[in-house]
Amino acid sequence: MSANNKPKAPANRATNSYVPSYQAPPEPPAPLPTPKVENKIEVPATMNVTTMTDLVDRIQENASILFPASPRLKVSTALAPSGLLCHGIVVGPKNEESKTSRYKVLLKGPGVPGVKSEPGRGRREALVGLLEEVERRVGKEMLGS
Question: Helix (H, G, I), strand (E, B), or coil: what is residue 3?
Answer without folding.
Answer: helix
